[in-house]
Amino acid sequence: MTNIIRTGIRSVCVLVPVMGLTWVFGILSVNQDLVIFQYIFCIFNTLQGLCIFLFHCVFNRQIRDALKHRSARKRSLQTFSSDFRKQTNSGARRPLEDSYRADSRMDSSEDWDRQERKQYQRDIRRTTLT
Question: Global pTM?
Fold first, then answer.
């Protein structure tokens, strides 16, 4: 619970100055004589999305950990699929019960992808709740 409160306070401390400062320049840019405020407003308004992305995605430890976990799972899946292809392309015959076991574990690549997506969503939920 304190982690959620801490994240909320951090979000407010980052977003209020960025958005508030931008719109202060927006209000000051109404006057046609002060063109510099229009340029500053345009620049700050453009950088808002970048600031939100940096502070809530790049600097967020939970998102970085989830991306690392996803890339590790992806690498392991690539290794598994390349090993599986080598095994099936090698022409080596397996006994009937081994091939039956392998077929029952993984019916098709779509089922495998669906299971991986479900596991990834579970992992994301688990990291956001803790």
Answer: 0.42
